[in-house]
Each structure stands twice: as C-alpha cells, then as structure tokens.
Specification:
The complex is a heterodimer of chains A (about 150) and B (about 250). Chain A has four helices and seven strands. Chain A is α/β, with parallel strands linked by helices. The chains are: A alpha/beta (about 150), B mainly alpha (about 250).
C-alpha cells in the first residue's frame, strides 16, 4: 500500500506544462508543494510564471486529472503568488530540456543569450515579447536562425 | 458609497489594470507589426492577470459573494474607479505608446513601493507586477524614442499623443482621503511621492525622443470617484456584452 502523499507526488510530478510539453511543472518551478493534510486530503500549491499566464487553468485541470487517475478525487489546488516566481526556479533538467527543444534557457544577469542551435553567443534580440508571456524573440548572428529565449524574470 | 476604504482601494487598482489591459487587447489583429501584436497582447495579458488577483482579493474584502467576474462584468461606468488615463481610447499607435509611457512610468515605482505594503496580499501581487512593469516601461520608452526620433510623420504623431494625454497625468498622483488613510497604516502607496521619479523617466524619454514636454495646465480628475469620460461606457458595453446577455455564462 503506497502512502497517499507518495501516490499524489508521483502523479503530480509527472504533469507537464501545456505550452512547453517536454517540461514538467516541477521542472519549471510552477509546482510549489504537495501535502497531505490532517484530514487525509491532498493540497497542491502552484504559482504562475506571469500574472496573466493563461496556462494556469489548464495546469490545474491536468493536476486534477492526474490525481483522479490514481484515485484521488478531492484534492485542493491552490495558487500562491508569494514568493513571486523567478526564472531561477527552473531546474537544471528543465533548462536542458528547453535548450533541446530550441528555446534558449533564461540567461543569468550579465551573460549573453546563447543560440540553442549552434551555441554561439553572437545573438540579437528581435522582440522582447514572444508567442507566450515568458519568451522573447531572438536571432543568432552566427547560424542566422531565429529562435525563442525564455525571459529572465 | 460607504464601502470600506480597503475594498475601494483594491477595486480601483484592479480597475486600472483591467481597463488598460482591455484597451491594449483591442489592438489584437491591427497592430503595426507582428512583433508589436505579440507585445501589446502580452502586456494586456500581464495587466489582466494582475487585475484578476486584485479582483479576487476585493471580492473577499467585500464579503458579499462577488467574484472577479461579477466585479469586472456587472458594474456600470460610475462604479468603475480606474484612473481616467487608462480608459483613453487607443487612437493611433503613437497615442497608445504615450499612454503606456505615462502609465507605466508611474506603475513601476508604484508596484516597487507596494512590495513593502503591510498587506500581504497586495505585496504579493506587487512582487509579480513589478517584474512585468519593468518590461512594460522599457517597451514604452523604446517606442517613444523610436517614433519621436523617427520620421517627421512619426514624430508628429508621437507628439500629438503626448499632448492629447497630458491632461490625464495629474490624476496619477492625486490621492483621495480614503487612500491617504490607508497610507498612514502602511497598506497603500502614496502616489503623490512618485511624481519626481515619474518626471525623470518621462522627461528622459521625451528628451531622447526629441519631443516636447507639454506645459502644465488644467488636469482631469475624478476616476477614483467613478467620474469618467464617455469612452469608458462604450468600452465596457462591448467588454461586458456577453455577461450582460447571459449572466454567469462560463466557457
């Protein structure tokens, strides 16, 4: 018999982001905690990357679905704003997956954005706003390919 | 109008973000370039996201069971408490950028100060908003310079936007007595103290853009008291039409 919290953790940890499907919400830092309450129910806490991130509703639905699949139907899913999400919350695994899907991981302050295709650091920003709130548009001056970069926030 | 001051305060902040966010969303499908289409939609999304957090809190403070949708879709113009700058129609792209510059140059230091609020909910919304506002101000400043220091035509239009909206900038720093009371207990931000920071951001952008700062004259006010221009009514009529026709409808 697997403990309830353990079962919930395994299910929720496998939930992926709807806009970045190779990454789990845990790797993105969107998943904050999974806890078993005294009453024997599960509380999951998530945080949005951006205030208006439209993926939050879907993420919530996917967490509910994942939990229901392992027989947990009365979980509480809460959104917490503080502390505010930061791109530093993306795990090393998450960064590697972003690069593998052609999205430059968030660059630390003072370091250039690296082209996810050829690893050149000769890159230029085309637009600070991309197809989703969390990405900007870039071009590599070495291989000339356009690419998206995860914004440092 | 005897609603508790904190409820009215949070509602006013929510209305600022929603009204400006909705105005920006009206560019979707007609922005000058694809990149700008994405930028304006993203900024709109940030603002509407901030508004949601604030409306949820306002609904809880009121304690009468109104949720974010009730507050956004089922209040009339007179019940909206946004600063009148935010409701000004988009005009051309230059005017929209002028509105962005004026508003965001206030919003960034505002949210920055709000992160120190004694109200944990407001501080949490602020901590997210401040990161977003930084991007918004850079966006507005860059475009102000590009248009002002661009062609004769872009300069003329950018200057016209600046001139048209100047009268709505005084209100950004006007404090009601309710708000002043909340400043005293460490909850609210005294916007009147943000004026010098705003002046600096705006003047710097205008100078670099070869634009002229308009002379101070009569300033519009009254947004926080529910006094608005005709345009807000038109905007709300469109924004609220679905919920007015089918109250409580969900997707």
């Amino acid at each position: 018999m697997v403990a309830l919290a353990e079962k919930a953790r395994a299910a929720v940890n496998a939930v992926t982001d709807p806009e970045l499907p190779p990454l789990t919400i845990a790797e993105l830092g969107v998943l904050r905690s999974i806890e078993e309450n005294a009453a024997g129910t599960i509380t999951v806490r998530i945080t949005p990357t951006y205030s208006g991130c439209p993926a939050m509703t879907i993420i919530q639905l996917e967490i509910e679905t994942a939990l229901a699949k392992v027989g947990i139907n009365d979980a509480q899913i809460e959104t917490e704003l503080a502390p505010a999400w930061s791109s530093a919350d993306i795990s090393a695994e998450g960064r590697a997956k972003l690069a593998a899907m052609g999205i430059a991981p968030p660059a630390d302050a003072g370091t250039p954005v690296t082209c996810p295709r050829c690893n050149s650091q000769a890159t230029e920003e085309l637009s600070r706003f991309g197809a989703t709130a969390c990405k900007s548009l870039w071009r590599c001056s070495a291989c000339l390919e356009p690419f998206e970069a995860f914004k440092a926030l | 109008m005897s609603a508790p001051p904190l409820f009215r305060y949070v509602l006013g902040l929510a209305d600022d973000q929603l009204v400006l966010g909705h105005r920006l969303s009206q560019w979707t499908g007609s922005a000058p370039t694809l990149e700008e289409e994405l930028a304006l939609a993203n900024i709109a999304l940030d603002l509407i996201g901030q508004a949601r957090g604030l409306y949820q809190y306002a609904g809880e403070l009121e304690g009468q069971g109104r949720d974010e949708d009730d507050l956004a879709y089922h209040r009339d113009t007179r019940a909206y408490l946004n600063l009148t700058l935010t409701e000004q129609p988009n005009g051309d792209f230059g005017k929209t950028i002028a509105r962005q510059l004026f508003y965001t140059a206030m919003a960034l230091p505002f949210w920055l100060a709000m992160t120190a609020s004694s109200d944990a909910r407001l501080a949490a919304v602020a901590a997210k908003a401040v990161k977003e506002a930084r991007y918004h101000l850079r966006h507005a400043t860059e475009w102000t310079v590009r248009l002002g220091d661009g062609t004769e035509e872009s300069n003329r239009r950018m200057q016209a936007g600046i001139n048209d909206l100047w009268e709505f900038t005084g209100e950004l720093f006007e404090m009601s007595s309710d708000e002043a009371g909340l400043v005293d207990v460490g909850v609210a931000v005294d916007r009147s103290t943000l004026k010098p920071i705003w002046e600096q951001s705006v003047s710097q952008a205008l100078t670099e853009a070869m634009l002229t700062r308009p002379a101070d004259s009569w300033m519009s006010e009254g947004g926080r008291d529910g006094l608005h221009g005709e345009d807000l009514g038109h905007m709300l009529a469109e924004m609220q039409s679905l919920q007015r026709m089918h109250p409580g409808l969900t997707w």
